[in-house]
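User: Predict the structure for this protein chain, please.
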Amino acid sequence: MQSNVLVIGASGGIASALLKQLNEDEHVHSLVSVSRSDVAPLSDKHQHHVFDSSSEAKVEAFVKEQKGKQRFTHVICCTGVLHSSGKLMLKPEKRLEDINAEQLSEYFRVNTIVPAIWVKHAVNIINKDKATIIVFSARVGSISENRLGGWYGYRASKAALNMIMKTAAVEYKRRSPNTALVCYHPGTVDTELSKPFQANVKPSKLFTPDFTVEQLIKHTLSLDPEDSPFYLDWEGKTINW
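Assistant: Here is the predicted structure, written as structure tokens:
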């Protein structure tokens, strides 16, 4: 089956590796990417669009344009923030006194609201026969597995994203029942997002972007919509919500 793939947040480390592998995949017919910064098209089948996904009006305009052209079999949202966002420096909170409104707002804006906007509008451009919508969550977003505490904003924004996806899956089963919704934990990847925290990660648990993408493709692109939604880690194992 030929696939049309949409990659959101395409300028990050994981997304760059994802675009490269998808572009080389003969089963991918059309590859469309979106980010705030320019990305050079990798081939004739790759088109890139530059705009800020935090503007719902721009997302809506893009979706309207694409709706007249094609339907996507896979929508992959790679957006996320942990320790910096533009000029705003974020620092995962170790104690209650570290919580502040500005930082919380930024975590939720990038990690929860932007993916939620895409999930809202993606229903209009996905392939109704079979599709997958994937967002990058994190294991620390699991409420039931939280034993260590800390990282209030990041944890809460990912937990909220999980709830958005779990709730949206109920509606998608009515409106687009052949769509699988996935919250995916890629593990700790050697990108700018994880740089300040890599010293505490075992070398065997620090993954390259290429390996991360291989695992993502292996475990998420052929899931059964009947079992949607999914909360999976890089090994394809289920994480408790």
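The chain has one domain: 3-233.
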